[in-house]
Amino acid sequence: MRTLEIKGASGSSAIRVGERLGSQTKYIVPERTVIITDTNVRRYYEEMFPRCSIITVGTGEKIKTLETAGSILEELIGHGADRSVFLLGIGGGIVCDITGFVASIYLRGVRYGFVASTLLAQADASVGGKNGVNIRGYKNMAGVFNQPEFVICDPELLKTLPKKEVQCGFAEIVKHAAIADKAMFGFLEENYRGALALDPEIIEKLVYDSVRIKASVVNRDEKEKGERRKLNFGHTLGHAIEKAAGVSHGEAVAAGMKAASDISVRKGLLSAADAKRIENLLANLGLPTEIPADKQKLMDALGKDKKREGDIVHFVLLNGIGNAVVENISIRELLHG
Ligand SMILES: NC(=O)c1ccc[n+]([C@@H]2O[C@H](COP(=O)([O-])OP(=O)(O)OC[C@H]3O[C@@H](n4cnc5c(N)ncnc54)[C@H](O)[C@@H]3O)[C@@H](O)[C@H]2O)c1
Ligand SMILES: [Zn+2]
After folding, report:
1. Residue that finishes a domain, picked among 140, 160, 180
2. Closest protein CA for atom 4 of ligand 1
3. Of 160, 185, 203, which closes a domain?
4. Ligand 1 mean position to 71 CA, how many Å?
5. Does residue 157 line the site of ligand 1, with CB under 6 A?
6. Mean pLDDT over residues 163-180, rounded?
7. CA distances in angstroms from 265 to 182, 258, 261, 320, listed in the order given
8. Could you tell me the distance, in angstroms and rounded to a whole number, from the CA of residue 64 to the centre of ligand 1?
9. What digits encode the pLDDT tens for the residues 19-57?
10. Are 149 and 194 within one domain?
Protein backbone atom coordinates (compact mmCIF):
# COMPACT_ATOMS: atom_id res chain seq x y z
CA MET A 1 0.00 0.00 0.00
CA ARG A 2 1.19 3.52 -0.81
CA THR A 3 -0.33 6.77 0.45
CA LEU A 4 -0.55 10.17 -1.21
CA GLU A 5 -1.52 13.41 0.48
CA ILE A 6 -3.73 16.12 -1.03
CA LYS A 7 -3.66 19.45 0.77
CA GLY A 8 -6.80 21.43 0.00
CA ALA A 9 -8.09 24.65 1.53
CA SER A 10 -10.88 22.60 3.12
CA GLY A 11 -8.45 20.13 4.72
CA SER A 12 -6.19 17.36 3.59
CA SER A 13 -6.94 13.98 2.16
CA ALA A 14 -4.96 10.71 2.33
CA ILE A 15 -5.31 8.54 -0.76
CA ARG A 16 -4.39 4.94 0.10
CA VAL A 17 -3.68 2.94 -3.04
CA GLY A 18 -3.58 -0.81 -2.53
CA GLU A 19 -5.43 -0.74 0.81
CA ARG A 20 -8.32 -3.22 1.26
CA LEU A 21 -12.03 -2.66 1.77
CA GLY A 22 -11.80 -5.16 4.64
CA SER A 23 -9.34 -2.92 6.55
CA GLN A 24 -11.88 -0.16 7.18
CA THR A 25 -11.86 -0.42 10.94
CA LYS A 26 -8.34 1.07 10.91
CA TYR A 27 -9.85 4.31 9.70
CA ILE A 28 -13.39 4.56 11.06
CA VAL A 29 -15.36 3.93 14.23
CA PRO A 30 -18.21 1.65 13.04
CA GLU A 31 -20.73 2.85 15.66
CA ARG A 32 -20.40 6.39 14.40
CA THR A 33 -20.26 5.59 10.69
CA VAL A 34 -23.03 5.46 8.12
CA ILE A 35 -22.18 3.78 4.81
CA ILE A 36 -23.58 5.19 1.57
CA THR A 37 -23.42 2.73 -1.32
CA ASP A 38 -25.36 1.63 -4.40
CA THR A 39 -27.37 -1.52 -5.02
CA ASN A 40 -24.69 -3.21 -7.19
CA VAL A 41 -21.80 -2.59 -4.81
CA ARG A 42 -23.92 -3.67 -1.86
CA ARG A 43 -24.87 -6.90 -3.63
CA TYR A 44 -21.22 -7.78 -4.34
CA TYR A 45 -19.50 -6.57 -1.21
CA GLU A 46 -21.86 -6.14 1.74
CA GLU A 47 -20.22 -9.05 3.56
CA MET A 48 -16.93 -7.14 3.57
CA PHE A 49 -18.48 -3.89 4.81
CA PRO A 50 -17.72 -2.83 8.38
CA ARG A 51 -20.78 -3.28 10.63
CA CYS A 52 -22.51 0.10 10.28
CA SER A 53 -25.86 1.48 9.21
CA ILE A 54 -26.15 1.41 5.42
CA ILE A 55 -27.98 3.80 3.10
CA THR A 56 -28.38 2.41 -0.43
CA VAL A 57 -29.00 4.43 -3.57
CA GLY A 58 -29.81 3.24 -7.10
CA THR A 59 -27.39 3.29 -10.00
CA GLY A 60 -26.73 5.43 -13.04
CA GLU A 61 -26.23 9.11 -13.74
CA LYS A 62 -29.99 9.70 -13.46
CA ILE A 63 -29.91 9.15 -9.69
CA LYS A 64 -27.14 11.74 -9.11
CA THR A 65 -29.74 14.34 -8.19
CA LEU A 66 -30.81 16.73 -5.45
CA GLU A 67 -33.74 14.35 -4.81
CA THR A 68 -31.37 11.46 -4.02
CA ALA A 69 -29.26 13.76 -1.85
CA GLY A 70 -32.46 14.90 -0.10
CA SER A 71 -33.57 11.35 0.61
CA ILE A 72 -30.14 10.51 2.07
CA LEU A 73 -30.35 13.60 4.31
CA GLU A 74 -33.77 12.38 5.51
CA GLU A 75 -32.41 8.89 6.20
CA LEU A 76 -29.54 10.39 8.18
CA ILE A 77 -32.02 12.32 10.30
CA GLY A 78 -33.99 9.07 10.64
CA HIS A 79 -30.84 7.33 11.94
CA GLY A 80 -30.45 10.13 14.49
CA ALA A 81 -27.05 11.01 13.02
CA ASP A 82 -25.47 13.97 14.81
CA ARG A 83 -22.37 16.05 14.05
CA SER A 84 -20.08 13.21 15.11
CA VAL A 85 -21.29 10.98 12.26
CA PHE A 86 -18.76 9.79 9.67
CA LEU A 87 -20.11 9.14 6.15
CA LEU A 88 -18.31 6.38 4.26
CA GLY A 89 -19.11 6.28 0.54
CA ILE A 90 -18.39 2.83 -0.93
CA GLY A 91 -18.82 2.83 -4.69
CA GLY A 92 -17.98 4.45 -7.99
CA GLY A 93 -17.84 8.10 -8.95
CA ILE A 94 -21.58 8.54 -8.52
CA VAL A 95 -21.64 7.28 -4.93
CA CYS A 96 -18.50 9.32 -4.16
CA ASP A 97 -19.90 12.54 -5.68
CA ILE A 98 -23.20 12.21 -3.80
CA THR A 99 -21.56 11.19 -0.52
CA GLY A 100 -19.16 14.16 -0.65
CA PHE A 101 -22.03 16.51 -1.41
CA VAL A 102 -24.31 15.18 1.35
CA ALA A 103 -21.44 15.18 3.88
CA SER A 104 -20.69 18.80 2.97
CA ILE A 105 -24.21 20.01 3.71
CA TYR A 106 -25.59 17.69 6.42
CA LEU A 107 -25.55 19.75 9.64
CA ARG A 108 -23.38 22.22 7.68
CA GLY A 109 -20.73 19.57 7.13
CA VAL A 110 -19.67 16.25 8.67
CA ARG A 111 -16.59 14.04 8.27
CA TYR A 112 -16.41 11.65 5.35
CA GLY A 113 -14.23 9.27 3.33
CA PHE A 114 -14.47 6.93 0.34
CA VAL A 115 -13.76 3.37 -0.71
CA ALA A 116 -13.54 3.85 -4.49
CA SER A 117 -14.83 0.71 -6.24
CA THR A 118 -14.49 1.55 -9.96
CA LEU A 119 -11.29 2.17 -11.90
CA LEU A 120 -12.59 5.61 -12.85
CA ALA A 121 -13.28 6.50 -9.23
CA GLN A 122 -9.86 5.22 -8.12
CA ALA A 123 -7.87 6.92 -10.86
CA ASP A 124 -9.90 10.11 -11.02
CA ALA A 125 -13.34 10.82 -9.54
CA SER A 126 -12.70 10.13 -5.86
CA VAL A 127 -9.62 12.36 -5.80
CA GLY A 128 -9.59 16.13 -5.76
CA GLY A 129 -12.44 17.24 -3.52
CA LYS A 130 -15.00 18.08 -6.20
CA ASN A 131 -18.45 16.68 -5.56
CA GLY A 132 -21.99 17.44 -6.56
CA VAL A 133 -25.20 16.42 -8.29
CA ASN A 134 -26.85 16.94 -11.67
CA ILE A 135 -29.87 19.15 -12.20
CA ARG A 136 -32.36 18.38 -15.00
CA GLY A 137 -29.73 16.30 -16.73
CA TYR A 138 -27.07 19.03 -16.64
CA LYS A 139 -24.01 17.55 -15.02
CA ASN A 140 -22.62 18.65 -11.67
CA MET A 141 -24.65 21.87 -11.56
CA ALA A 142 -24.70 21.97 -7.74
CA GLY A 143 -21.80 21.00 -5.52
CA VAL A 144 -18.87 22.17 -3.46
CA PHE A 145 -15.11 21.73 -3.19
CA ASN A 146 -14.41 19.73 -0.04
CA GLN A 147 -11.77 17.04 0.52
CA PRO A 148 -12.65 13.60 1.94
CA GLU A 149 -10.47 12.56 4.89
CA PHE A 150 -9.32 9.48 3.04
CA VAL A 151 -9.82 7.53 -0.14
CA ILE A 152 -9.17 3.78 -0.24
CA CYS A 153 -8.35 2.33 -3.69
CA ASP A 154 -8.63 -1.46 -3.46
CA PRO A 155 -7.62 -3.10 -6.78
CA GLU A 156 -9.37 -6.36 -5.79
CA LEU A 157 -12.77 -4.65 -6.09
CA LEU A 158 -12.25 -4.13 -9.81
CA LYS A 159 -12.56 -7.84 -10.60
CA THR A 160 -16.36 -7.62 -10.59
CA LEU A 161 -16.48 -4.42 -12.64
CA PRO A 162 -18.16 -4.67 -16.09
CA LYS A 163 -15.65 -4.34 -18.96
CA LYS A 164 -17.17 -1.09 -20.19
CA GLU A 165 -16.60 0.51 -16.80
CA VAL A 166 -12.98 -0.68 -16.77
CA GLN A 167 -12.47 1.02 -20.13
CA CYS A 168 -13.80 4.33 -18.78
CA GLY A 169 -11.07 4.18 -16.14
CA PHE A 170 -8.37 3.52 -18.73
CA ALA A 171 -9.38 6.60 -20.70
CA GLU A 172 -8.67 8.77 -17.64
CA ILE A 173 -5.42 6.92 -16.95
CA VAL A 174 -4.21 7.56 -20.52
CA LYS A 175 -5.24 11.20 -20.04
CA HIS A 176 -3.10 11.56 -16.92
CA ALA A 177 -0.07 10.01 -18.62
CA ALA A 178 -0.53 12.10 -21.78
CA ILE A 179 -0.70 15.44 -19.95
CA ALA A 180 1.97 14.86 -17.35
CA ASP A 181 4.15 11.77 -17.50
CA LYS A 182 6.00 10.43 -20.52
CA ALA A 183 7.45 7.49 -18.55
CA MET A 184 3.98 6.43 -17.38
CA PHE A 185 2.80 6.62 -20.99
CA GLY A 186 5.65 4.30 -21.99
CA PHE A 187 4.77 1.92 -19.14
CA LEU A 188 1.18 1.79 -20.40
CA GLU A 189 2.34 1.07 -23.95
CA GLU A 190 4.41 -1.86 -22.68
CA ASN A 191 1.91 -3.20 -20.16
CA TYR A 192 -1.50 -2.68 -21.73
CA ARG A 193 -2.16 -6.42 -21.78
CA GLY A 194 -1.55 -6.76 -18.04
CA ALA A 195 -3.63 -3.67 -17.44
CA LEU A 196 -6.54 -5.10 -19.43
CA ALA A 197 -6.23 -8.35 -17.46
CA LEU A 198 -6.46 -6.23 -14.25
CA ASP A 199 -3.11 -7.51 -12.98
CA PRO A 200 -3.21 -6.04 -9.44
CA GLU A 201 0.42 -4.85 -9.48
CA ILE A 202 0.04 -3.06 -12.80
CA ILE A 203 -3.33 -1.57 -11.82
CA GLU A 204 -1.94 -0.42 -8.48
CA LYS A 205 0.92 1.35 -10.22
CA LEU A 206 -1.36 2.98 -12.79
CA VAL A 207 -3.84 4.13 -10.13
CA TYR A 208 -1.01 5.42 -7.96
CA ASP A 209 0.55 7.35 -10.86
CA SER A 210 -2.84 8.75 -11.85
CA VAL A 211 -3.57 9.91 -8.33
CA ARG A 212 -0.05 11.35 -8.01
CA ILE A 213 -0.60 13.41 -11.16
CA LYS A 214 -4.09 14.53 -10.21
CA ALA A 215 -2.96 15.32 -6.66
CA SER A 216 -0.06 17.45 -7.82
CA VAL A 217 -2.32 19.42 -10.16
CA VAL A 218 -5.00 19.85 -7.48
CA ASN A 219 -2.41 20.86 -4.87
CA ARG A 220 -1.37 23.69 -7.20
CA ASP A 221 -4.87 24.74 -8.29
CA GLU A 222 -7.69 23.32 -6.16
CA LYS A 223 -10.43 25.46 -7.68
CA GLU A 224 -9.58 25.20 -11.35
CA LYS A 225 -8.31 28.68 -12.10
CA GLY A 226 -5.55 27.52 -14.46
CA GLU A 227 -3.40 24.43 -13.99
CA ARG A 228 -6.35 22.17 -13.13
CA ARG A 229 -7.81 22.83 -16.57
CA LYS A 230 -5.17 20.45 -17.96
CA LEU A 231 -7.21 17.61 -16.47
CA ASN A 232 -9.84 18.42 -19.10
CA PHE A 233 -7.62 17.01 -21.86
CA GLY A 234 -9.94 15.21 -24.29
CA HIS A 235 -12.96 16.34 -22.31
CA THR A 236 -14.12 19.51 -24.12
CA LEU A 237 -14.82 17.59 -27.31
CA GLY A 238 -15.34 14.40 -25.29
CA HIS A 239 -18.33 15.79 -23.38
CA ALA A 240 -19.82 17.07 -26.65
CA ILE A 241 -19.32 13.66 -28.33
CA GLU A 242 -20.81 11.93 -25.26
CA LYS A 243 -23.98 14.04 -25.64
CA ALA A 244 -24.15 14.10 -29.43
CA ALA A 245 -23.40 10.41 -30.06
CA GLY A 246 -24.80 8.92 -26.84
CA VAL A 247 -21.66 6.87 -26.11
CA SER A 248 -20.02 6.22 -22.72
CA HIS A 249 -17.84 8.86 -21.06
CA GLY A 250 -14.67 6.82 -21.53
CA GLU A 251 -15.30 6.17 -25.22
CA ALA A 252 -16.10 9.83 -25.83
CA VAL A 253 -13.01 11.02 -23.94
CA ALA A 254 -10.83 8.63 -25.95
CA ALA A 255 -12.16 10.10 -29.20
CA GLY A 256 -11.78 13.59 -27.68
CA MET A 257 -8.11 12.90 -26.86
CA LYS A 258 -7.47 11.68 -30.39
CA ALA A 259 -9.09 14.83 -31.82
CA ALA A 260 -7.14 17.08 -29.41
CA SER A 261 -3.90 15.29 -30.41
CA ASP A 262 -4.67 15.97 -34.08
CA ILE A 263 -5.26 19.66 -33.33
CA SER A 264 -1.96 19.69 -31.40
CA VAL A 265 -0.21 18.28 -34.49
CA ARG A 266 -1.85 20.95 -36.68
CA LYS A 267 -0.57 23.63 -34.35
CA GLY A 268 2.95 22.27 -34.57
CA LEU A 269 3.07 21.25 -30.88
CA LEU A 270 2.96 17.47 -31.22
CA SER A 271 4.71 15.26 -33.77
CA ALA A 272 2.56 13.10 -36.03
CA ALA A 273 4.47 10.07 -34.67
CA ASP A 274 3.47 10.90 -31.08
CA ALA A 275 -0.16 11.42 -32.11
CA LYS A 276 -0.01 7.94 -33.64
CA ARG A 277 1.35 6.53 -30.36
CA ILE A 278 -1.64 7.98 -28.54
CA GLU A 279 -4.05 6.57 -31.10
CA ASN A 280 -2.39 3.13 -30.91
CA LEU A 281 -2.43 3.03 -27.12
CA LEU A 282 -6.13 3.91 -27.00
CA ALA A 283 -6.86 1.22 -29.60
CA ASN A 284 -4.80 -1.36 -27.68
CA LEU A 285 -6.86 -0.59 -24.59
CA GLY A 286 -10.01 -1.26 -26.60
CA LEU A 287 -11.06 2.39 -26.77
CA PRO A 288 -12.47 3.97 -29.93
CA THR A 289 -10.63 6.90 -31.52
CA GLU A 290 -13.23 7.99 -34.07
CA ILE A 291 -16.87 8.37 -33.16
CA PRO A 292 -19.15 9.71 -35.86
CA ALA A 293 -21.32 12.53 -34.51
CA ASP A 294 -23.57 15.11 -36.08
CA LYS A 295 -21.70 18.47 -36.37
CA GLN A 296 -24.77 20.52 -35.41
CA LYS A 297 -25.33 18.39 -32.30
CA LEU A 298 -21.64 18.76 -31.39
CA MET A 299 -21.94 22.51 -31.84
CA ASP A 300 -25.04 22.63 -29.63
CA ALA A 301 -23.33 20.56 -26.94
CA LEU A 302 -20.18 22.72 -27.05
CA GLY A 303 -22.40 25.80 -26.73
CA LYS A 304 -23.68 24.40 -23.43
CA ASP A 305 -20.14 23.78 -22.08
CA LYS A 306 -20.07 25.11 -18.50
CA LYS A 307 -16.47 26.17 -18.95
CA ARG A 308 -17.05 28.15 -22.17
CA GLU A 309 -16.51 31.90 -22.17
CA GLY A 310 -18.48 33.29 -25.10
CA ASP A 311 -17.30 31.55 -28.28
CA ILE A 312 -13.97 30.69 -26.62
CA VAL A 313 -13.06 27.51 -24.74
CA HIS A 314 -9.90 26.82 -22.75
CA PHE A 315 -8.70 23.91 -24.83
CA VAL A 316 -6.02 21.49 -23.70
CA LEU A 317 -3.33 20.64 -26.25
CA LEU A 318 -0.27 18.44 -25.98
CA ASN A 319 3.14 19.97 -26.31
CA GLY A 320 4.69 16.52 -26.71
CA ILE A 321 3.59 13.42 -24.78
CA GLY A 322 3.65 14.17 -21.04
CA ASN A 323 3.27 17.92 -21.44
CA ALA A 324 -0.01 19.84 -21.73
CA VAL A 325 -0.73 23.47 -22.54
CA VAL A 326 -4.03 25.32 -22.35
CA GLU A 327 -4.95 27.62 -25.22
CA ASN A 328 -8.00 29.71 -25.94
CA ILE A 329 -9.64 28.31 -29.06
CA SER A 330 -12.94 29.28 -30.66
CA ILE A 331 -15.64 26.65 -30.94
CA ARG A 332 -15.70 27.30 -34.69
CA GLU A 333 -12.00 26.45 -35.03
CA LEU A 334 -12.46 23.28 -32.97
CA LEU A 335 -15.07 21.90 -35.29
CA HIS A 336 -13.75 23.12 -38.62
CA GLY A 337 -10.02 23.02 -38.09
N1 LIG B 1 -15.63 14.50 -8.63
C2 LIG B 1 -14.82 14.38 -9.64
O3 LIG B 1 -13.74 14.98 -9.69
C4 LIG B 1 -15.21 13.50 -10.78
C5 LIG B 1 -14.29 13.19 -11.79
C6 LIG B 1 -14.67 12.31 -12.80
C7 LIG B 1 -15.95 11.77 -12.80
N8 LIG B 1 -16.83 12.09 -11.81
C9 LIG B 1 -18.17 11.53 -11.78
O10 LIG B 1 -18.10 10.13 -11.62
C11 LIG B 1 -19.29 9.55 -12.12
C12 LIG B 1 -18.94 8.28 -12.87
O13 LIG B 1 -18.30 7.39 -11.99
P14 LIG B 1 -18.11 5.86 -12.33
O15 LIG B 1 -17.63 5.73 -13.72
O16 LIG B 1 -17.35 5.24 -11.23
O17 LIG B 1 -19.61 5.35 -12.43
P18 LIG B 1 -20.62 4.65 -11.38
O19 LIG B 1 -20.44 5.17 -10.02
O20 LIG B 1 -21.95 4.80 -12.01
O21 LIG B 1 -20.18 3.12 -11.42
C22 LIG B 1 -20.33 2.40 -12.63
C23 LIG B 1 -21.17 1.14 -12.47
O24 LIG B 1 -20.37 0.15 -11.83
C25 LIG B 1 -21.05 -0.37 -10.68
N26 LIG B 1 -20.00 -0.75 -9.75
C27 LIG B 1 -19.27 0.07 -8.95
N28 LIG B 1 -18.28 -0.61 -8.36
C29 LIG B 1 -18.39 -1.90 -8.76
C30 LIG B 1 -17.64 -3.07 -8.52
N31 LIG B 1 -16.54 -3.06 -7.76
N32 LIG B 1 -18.03 -4.21 -9.11
C33 LIG B 1 -19.12 -4.23 -9.95
N34 LIG B 1 -19.86 -3.15 -10.23
C35 LIG B 1 -19.49 -1.99 -9.65
C36 LIG B 1 -21.97 0.71 -10.25
O37 LIG B 1 -23.05 0.22 -9.51
C38 LIG B 1 -22.39 1.31 -11.59
O39 LIG B 1 -23.44 0.54 -12.13
C40 LIG B 1 -19.96 10.60 -12.98
O41 LIG B 1 -21.12 11.06 -12.35
C42 LIG B 1 -18.93 11.71 -13.06
O43 LIG B 1 -19.52 13.00 -13.14
C44 LIG B 1 -16.47 12.93 -10.80
ZN1 LIG C 1 -13.55 12.12 -17.43
Report:
1. 160
2. 125
3. 160
4. 20
5. yes
6. 96
7. 17, 11, 6, 9
8. 11
9. 999 998 899 999 999 999 999 999 999 999 999 999 999
10. no
